[in-house]
Amino acid sequence: MKEDTTNMFIPDFYVGRNIFITGANGYLGKALIEKLLRSCPKVGKIYMLMRPKKGLDVNERLKKIVENKLFDTLRNEQPSCFDKLIPIVGDIHAENLGLRPIDRQILIEKVTIIVNIAANVRFDITLKNAILSNTRSARDICILAQNMKNLAALVHISSTFTQTDKPVVNEELYPYGVDWKKMIKVAESVDDDILTTFTAKCVGSFPNTYVFSKRLAEEVINDYSKSLPCVMIRPSIVLPTMDEPVKGWIDNFNGPMTLYMAGGKGIVQVTYCNSDNDCQYVPVDVFVKAVIIVTCIRGTKSVIEDDTFHIYNCSDLTHVSIKKFADISARLLEQIPFEKMIWMPSNSTTSNYLKYYILIILLHIMPALFIDGILKLLNINPMLLKLQRKIYMATTVLAFFVLKKWQFRNEKLMKVFNSLSEDNWKIFGFDKTSFLTHDYAKNAILGTKQFLLNEDIMNLVAVKRHYNRMKWLDRIVRTLFVLIVLWILYRKNTLFYIIGAFFPLSV
């Protein structure tokens, strides 16, 4: 290893430091908290911004979070560590994060690190909600940070896709001509229906309101970085864990693994994308390691010593194409298929919209109508057509991201990892050559079955039998389809003309 960029043992930096995390109950937040508690055991309190939901108060929600299988290792080895988790009532959609005065004062006096992960990630939210949740909340985080007495680092989590107007995205801030202060005022004062009318004009070349609002949030953090120790990380598409604390951990239905799961169950037969593009994936455990390391680097120097805005892209590690990873996953699904498969899995892709639309009708809509018809006869609520409609709408929204090609440069972040000392590398290093390989894909599929779908791995023999039945059914249906087409052509006297065109008789 080269000289350590941090110039210290990273867990030592976190000793006694109190951390405030927004989005702590999300996928990235849970993974970050687990790694902090496990690898930096002397960390101080971790304050988690949360809101009551589904009849549960924040303490009840926290209890459900720590019951997640992600925390099994900690429960066995450090059961008392969860006492460090302190829920704070709040909401990123509300002004000033919806904090109570007493909680706000606690954060001001005790917190030394802020990690702002929370965002409304839906692509179809109104412009008003996107600005309030993703842009104004970033401003309110910065205002809170300015009042903190011992702030060492403010870490903002953005996205590489905030720069979709550029084919090559470096680890730097790109000037943007929209005034974020005016946009917040407009979102606060203008009626939602009126603002929706001007959404297309405001968003411009960006694909949706989420990307637009996150791009504005980068401007917010940049403006405050002149007086605050700011660091920004742009992750690309986050996938299940590669190694820690358990291989293949995932706990939400967002991202590519959901599509692989739908394909593995036979629900999705064709995908609309450019399969030659790089995957642009990053495992969640590598992402949280990056957050912990660059926070330490930023936190070791004050704004007076270093007034630069630290920016890193946490993106593609191996440049594996979508097609290659899909082929690896498809072969694995023969060995470890999903339960309740409705048809033989397929990994067909196309970037031609007309071809995709025709295949959607043939392979998605028509089978859905057929299966829903059978369900009606059995007095079971039909659901497949409704599901296929949702998949089609989601695919249409995602098309912008899977058809275009970007290069997200991450040399700065890789330099940070490569310069770790041996002691730090043992805790925060990773082997990028093992990412998106056969072993990784296998663990990701097993993780999806175990953590997301709650499937019993011990039931694999019965699931394979069902897979083989689906394979034979698929072959039979395809053969019948060809025979029916040939019969129709024969009845129309068209078959002989076709044969004659390819194999003319010599006179």
From TrEMBL:
<dbReference type="InterPro" id="IPR026055">
    <property type="entry name" value="FAR"/>
</dbReference>
<comment type="similarity">
    <text>Belongs to the fatty acyl-CoA reductase family.</text>
</comment>
<dbReference type="InterPro" id="IPR013120">
    <property type="entry name" value="FAR_NAD-bd"/>
</dbReference>
<dbReference type="InterPro" id="IPR033640">
    <property type="entry name" value="FAR_C"/>
</dbReference>
<dbReference type="Pfam" id="PF07993">
    <property type="entry name" value="NAD_binding_4"/>
</dbReference>
<dbReference type="GO" id="GO:0035336">
    <property type="term" value="P:long-chain fatty-acyl-CoA metabolic process"/>
</dbReference>
<keyword id="KW-0443">Lipid metabolism</keyword>
<feature type="transmembrane region" description="Helical">
    <location>
        <begin position="356"/>
        <end position="379"/>
    </location>
</feature>
<keyword id="KW-0521">NADP</keyword>
<protein>
    <recommendedName>
        <fullName>Fatty acyl-CoA reductase</fullName>
        <ecNumber>1.2.1.84</ecNumber>
    </recommendedName>
</protein>
<keyword id="KW-0472">Membrane</keyword>
<dbReference type="GO" id="GO:0080019">
    <property type="term" value="F:alcohol-forming very long-chain fatty acyl-CoA reductase activity"/>
</dbReference>
<comment type="function">
    <text>Catalyzes the reduction of fatty acyl-CoA to fatty alcohols.</text>
</comment>
<feature type="domain" description="Thioester reductase (TE)">
    <location>
        <begin position="21"/>
        <end position="291"/>
    </location>
</feature>
<dbReference type="InterPro" id="IPR036291">
    <property type="entry name" value="NAD(P)-bd_dom_sf"/>
</dbReference>
<feature type="transmembrane region" description="Helical">
    <location>
        <begin position="391"/>
        <end position="408"/>
    </location>
</feature>
<dbReference type="GO" id="GO:0005777">
    <property type="term" value="C:peroxisome"/>
</dbReference>
<dbReference type="GO" id="GO:0102965">
    <property type="term" value="F:alcohol-forming long-chain fatty acyl-CoA reductase activity"/>
</dbReference>
<keyword id="KW-1133">Transmembrane helix</keyword>
<keyword id="KW-0444">Lipid biosynthesis</keyword>
<dbReference type="GO" id="GO:0016020">
    <property type="term" value="C:membrane"/>
</dbReference>
<dbReference type="Pfam" id="PF03015">
    <property type="entry name" value="Sterile"/>
</dbReference>
<keyword id="KW-0812">Transmembrane</keyword>
<keyword id="KW-0560">Oxidoreductase</keyword>
<feature type="domain" description="Fatty acyl-CoA reductase C-terminal">
    <location>
        <begin position="363"/>
        <end position="455"/>
    </location>
</feature>
